[in-house]
Amino acid sequence: MVRSSHGVPHCNALAEQNDAFLFHMKRAQMRLLSKGQKLKPSSAVKVRVRKTVDPWYLSTEHRQWRNLVIKRASGRCQALEHGQRCTRAAPRHRMFADHITEVRDGGAPLDPANGQCLCGEHHSSKTAQARRLRYHATP
Ligand SMILES: [Zn+2]
What we know:
The protein is mostly helical. It has a domain at 60-136. 47% of the residues lie in helices and 10% in strands. The strands form two sheets. It has a two-stranded antiparallel ribbon with strand order 1-2. Strands 3-4 form a two-stranded antiparallel ribbon. Strand 1 (80-81) and strand 2 form a beta hairpin. The two termini are 67 Å apart. Bound molecules: zinc ion. Zinc ion (ZN) binds at residues 77, 79, 86, 88, 118-119, 121-122.
């Protein structure tokens, strides 16, 4: 703010008024700022991370299907590599009940015939392959 410097009282009075106004504004601004800071912790927006796990996977039906599939395979991975069955098995390895035809590809979700027991490694490689196939599939 350029202060009036040419000595006209009227102008000086205006300039003083202006300063008073600015001071007032500044104070109001400071009050707002400190108020905002005080409010921050309680009014902070909480980022909600939504888990995209389908509640269906937690249902009793799915759990029963899963147990059946793994039990039927005696907790051993059913993947075949060069005609040899994978040797990974529970409880040493975590086993997954896998949908042979993925549900999102139209596979029956609770049909034991559409299930196989896979180790983590084979499960993730199969999931990746299914995703690749889906990606390359022509609609
Ligand atoms: Zn395996």
